[in-house]
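Supplementary Methods, section 5.1.

A reviewer requested that the exact input to the structure prediction be made available. We therefore reproduce it here, unchanged from the version used in the analyses.
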Amino acid sequence: MLSLIFFVCMIWVFGKLFVLGFRAAWGISRFLLTIILLPVVLIGMVLGGLIYIAFPILIVVGIVSGLASD
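The structure derived from this sequence is encoded token-by-token as follows.
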């Protein structure tokens, strides 16, 4: 009986740690995509001559980020 309680508590604690790690990884990846990767991709598209695609993407991302509130 004691080992069953220990097992349940262990699953509970490590489950919470897993959820915390997943949320932290999601936050870090969202930061990397929006702050680092998106501007690099847009600059690369402009330098590559794809400004007609990069400009509408920039406008859409600007509108979405203006409307979204965290």
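The chain has one domain: 2-67. These observations are discussed further in the main text.
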